[in-house]
């Protein structure tokens, strides 16, 4: 990685660098949640009747559920009536080309380092950008179309590919799955949709960038990725938000469907605003992500979580088909007053199914980091295998690391392995690097990136570089 | 190059250096010997700037600058290199990447432009050859899973790459078999020049058969109690340290 020095040189901005607000005209729905809200959203998006019905079922499920109480942290009360459930840049319903997009909006994405223009396309990445509730641009669509690949906003998919959406939406994460998934089903605004046809290997990374801009809004996007038999796709999402004193809710749902012999690689670099050093403000990142593997299929989740006041998510894989594989690679960083409670669930149902979990937690300041994982081996999952490795790294003596691994096996031919370590960055390590001319800040960045290497290696090259930079910036000022 | 005057230091309130005077000029090799606990490694740590050591008296000039005022990384950037007695493992950070970062920092400090990747790899290959360092180890995580000998040889490889003006080898010979000792010594001999200097801290005379010092100093109880040429090392090998201990006791009582 020849860019390391450059990356390390770039560490200058100690504060959250994506905390600006874009001044743009918005259509904002007044705060509040009721059936009318849902009908409004559905109508605004010109949705078919069945989808409205599904949303309303989600809303009923939401009303019946309570906030969970099993978490290892205190969840501040959330007033769902104070959130606005829809905000969209005004006047622009649909863009035919980038020229039509508001220059302010494009400038915002530039600032975030995501040029929507050809540059990125040349780099082989197709980008969908979701600004508050609306998908503003999907690049490179035509090129993908030639291969029969569909990559568009969720809203567009509902209009143009209703059969696919109807068949798969809610098939992995049902509308009643949990309170946040139910809320998402009721009020989801937009998100991305991907379909890879049989036998097609998607020739470029597909990428979505999520941005919360407007005050007092929540972001409730929904992503649905279907990899048909024998296909392959690598997908990446990135997220940022402005600095605000209020907490904002992000309750997304991601569903992955890998049909026979298909493979989906899903990577996340999550950098929502984490709140200030006293824990004021920041995003509540409560996300439900789940995939299902049919025969010989593979789903791999990779996540780098550096942002949000509270991160609460467990990207999971249902290993339904025989010989299917699920992977979870995670780096979660908490500093200041941040909380991360994250991990995965691997449900082994089919025979000879495999799963691999590599979780690296980094806690600094008063940050609290929990790994929570479930490995479930069903009665028919003969010869199922799981390997789990949970490492925790502590910086300073005010932070915490916790591990909650659950293993349930109903099949005695299964083999489940679990390894866990906890370590601290040693003064000896820092001094050693100091003695070679590297200052303490850079020494920590180097040590952290080394620690997270196994996970970062799973990311597509250019995002690995971005993630590495993010880790360095996030932990700046944590030592010394 | 290095002038140490009346250096006193303590660690956890315990006095460990009690008035060291030493001058090292460019082109010289100084060996520092002495029994366990005499303060040899402490001297190396104080010069490199390890945090737990507190200087209570005296001064150290390095190339005319006040060394003790500098942060450890600045001492390194100024050209002071410590080959550690126990090199540290840093998992996941490749040796080569670490060296590229270190070299970049040192060059930036000196106002030199960063070295491009091609040039850097060429330099790395040259130095690997010079100090007979295994190419496979270059791409592995820094010292992780290295044998004791490999770690020590890596210190010499780093020394070759960073080209410091003053190198302190802190018991680099301990735990080395005869072949590794020969390779390490040959490395140092190839690297020595009129422009740089070495301080070699060692227990045994053995290393000095390979690296011939210009001066030998005996450290005992926080002081240099005797200085001489390489013959002093031979004398020590033969007679041990006891006669010096007695001599120094007499001095103290005087």
Name the descriptors.
heterodimer, A: 480 residues, ten-stranded mixed sheet, 23 strands, 24% helix, globular, disordered N terminus, B: Rossmann fold, six-stranded mixed sheet, 10 helices, 12 strands
Question: Could you characterize what this model shows?
Answer:
- The complex is a heterodimer of chains A (480) and B (254).
- Chain A has 480 residues and is α/β, with parallel strands linked by helices.
- Chain A has one domain.
- Helices cover 24% and strands 34% of the residues of chain A.
- Chain A has helices at 4-9, 35-44, 49-64, 103-111, 118-122, 141-146, 154-160, 162-168, 179-187, 427-434, 440-451, 453-456, 461-474; strands at residues 26-28, 87-89, 125-131, 134-138, 150-153, 192-196, 205-211, 222-227, 232-240, 247-250, 253-258, 263-270, 282-293, 298-305, 310-313, 316-319, 325-334, 339-348, 354-363, 368-377, 385-394, 400-409, 415-424.
- In chain A, the strands form 3 sheets. In chain A, strands 5, 6, 8, 10, 11, 13, 15, 16, 18, 20 and 22 form an 11-stranded mixed sheet that branches. Chain A has a 10-stranded mixed sheet with strand order 4-3-7-9-12-14-17-19-21-23.
- Chain B is of the alpha/beta class and 254 residues long.
- Chain B has one domain (2-253): 3-Layer(aba) Sandwich (Rossmann fold), CATH 3.40.50.
- Chain B contains 10 helices and 12 strands.
- Chain B has helices at 40-48, 72-78, 95-109, 117-130, 135-138, 148-162, 178-191, 206-210, 230-239, 242-253, and strands at 2-11, 14-24, 29-33, 53-62, 65-66, 80-83, 90-94, 141-142, 166-170, 197-201, 215-220, 223-228.
- In chain B, β1 and β2 form a beta hairpin.
- The two termini of chain B are 33 Å apart.
- The mean pLDDT of chain B is 91.
- Chain A binds chain B through residues 1-2, 4-5, 8, 426-429, 431-440, 442, 446-447, 449-454, and chain B through 48-51, 71-73, 75-77, 81-82, 84, 87-88, 90-93, 97-106, 109, 114, 117, 141-142, 158, 162.
């Amino acid at each position: 990685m020849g860019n390391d020095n450059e990356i390390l040189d770039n560490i200058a901005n100690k504060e959250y660098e994506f905390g600006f607000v874009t001044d743009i005209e918005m259509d904002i729905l007044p705060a509040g949640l009721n059936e009318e809200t849902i009908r409004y959203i559905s109508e605004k998006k010109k949705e078919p009747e069945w989808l409205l019905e599904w949303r309303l079922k989600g809303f009923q499920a939401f009303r019946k559920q309570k906030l969970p109480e099993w978490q290892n942290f205190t969840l501040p009360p959330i007033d769902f009536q104070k959130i606005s459930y829809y905000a969209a840049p005004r006047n622009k319903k649909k863009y035919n080309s980038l020229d039509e997009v508001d220059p302010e909006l494009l400038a915002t994405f530039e600032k975030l380092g995501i040029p929507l223009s050809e540059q990125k396309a040349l780099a082989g990445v197709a980008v969908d950008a979701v600004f508050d509730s609306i998908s503003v641009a999907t690049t490179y669509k035509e090129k993908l179309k030639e291969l029969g690949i569909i990559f568009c906003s969720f809203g567009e998919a509902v209009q143009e590919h209703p059969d696919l959406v109807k068949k798969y939406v809610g098939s992995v994460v049902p509308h009643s799955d949990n309170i946040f998934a139910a809320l998402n089903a009721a009020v989801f605004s937009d998100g991305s949709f991907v379909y890879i046809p049989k036998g097609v290997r998607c020739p470029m990374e597909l990428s979505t960038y999520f941005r919360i801009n407007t005050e007092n809004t929540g972001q409730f996007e929904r992503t649905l990725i279907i990899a048909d038999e024998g296909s392959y796709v690598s997908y990446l999402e990135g997220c940022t938000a402005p600095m605000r004193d209020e907490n904002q809710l992000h309750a997304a749902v991601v569903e992955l469907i890998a049909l026979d012999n298909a493979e989906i690689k899903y990577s996340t670099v999550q950098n929502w605003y984490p709140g200030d050093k006293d824990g004021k403000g920041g995003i509540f990142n409560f996300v439900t992500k789940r995939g299902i593997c049919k025969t010989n299929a593979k789903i791999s989740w990779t996540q780098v979580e550096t942002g949000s006041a509270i991160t609460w998510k467990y990207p999971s894989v249902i290993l339904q088909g025989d010989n299917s594989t699920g992977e979870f690679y995670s780096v979660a960083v908490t500093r200041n007053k941040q909380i991360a409670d994250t991990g995965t669930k691997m449900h082994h149902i089919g025979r000879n199914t495999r799963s691999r979990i590599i979780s690296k937690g980094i806690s600094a300041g008063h940050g609290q980091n929990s790994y929570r994982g479930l490995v479930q081996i069903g009665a028919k999952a003969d010869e199922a295998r799981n390997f789990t490795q949970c490492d925790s790294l502590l910086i300073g003596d005010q932070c915490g690391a916790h591990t909650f691994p659950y293993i349930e096996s109903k099949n005695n031919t299964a083999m489940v392995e679990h390894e866990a370590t906890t370590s601290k960055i040693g003064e000896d390590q820092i001094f050693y690097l100091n003695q070679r001319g590297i200052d303490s800040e850079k020494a920590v960045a180097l040590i952290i990136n080394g620690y997270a290497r196994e996970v970062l290696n799973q990311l597509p090259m250019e995002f690995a570089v971005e993630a590495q930079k993010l880790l360095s910036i996030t932990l700046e000022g944590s030592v010394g | 190059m290095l002038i140490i005057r009346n250096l006193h230091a303590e660690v956890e309130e315990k006095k460990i250096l009690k008035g060291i005077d030493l001058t090292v000029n460019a082109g010289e090799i100084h060996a520092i010997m002495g029994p366990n606990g005499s303060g040899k490694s402490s001297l190396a740590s104080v010069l490199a700037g390890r945090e737990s050591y507190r200087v209570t008296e005296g001064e150290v000039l390095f190339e005319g600058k006040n060394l003790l005022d500098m942060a450890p990384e600045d001492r390194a950037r100024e050209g002071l290199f410590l080959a550690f007695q126990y090199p540290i493992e840093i998992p996941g950070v490749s040796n080569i990447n670490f060296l590229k970062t270190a070299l970049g920092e040192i060059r930036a400090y000196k106002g030199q432009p960063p070295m491009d990747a091609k040039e850097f790899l060429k330099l790395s290959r040259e130095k690997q050859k010079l100090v007979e360092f295994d190419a496979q180890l270059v791409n592995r995580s820094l010292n992780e899973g290295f044998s004791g000998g490999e770690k020590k040889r890596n210190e010499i490889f780093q020394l070759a790459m960073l080209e410091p003006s003053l190198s302190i080898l802190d018991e680099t010979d301990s735990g080395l078999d005869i072949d590794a000792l020969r390779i390490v010594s040959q490395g140092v001999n190839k690297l020595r020049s009129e422009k740089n200097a070495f301080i070699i801290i060692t227990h045994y005379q053995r290393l000095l058969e390979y690296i011939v010092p210009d001066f030998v100093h005996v450290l005992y109880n926080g002081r240099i109690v005797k200085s001489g040429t390489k013959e002093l090392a031979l004398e020590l090998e033969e007679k041990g340290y006891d006669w010096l201990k007695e001599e120094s006791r007499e001095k103290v009582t005087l």
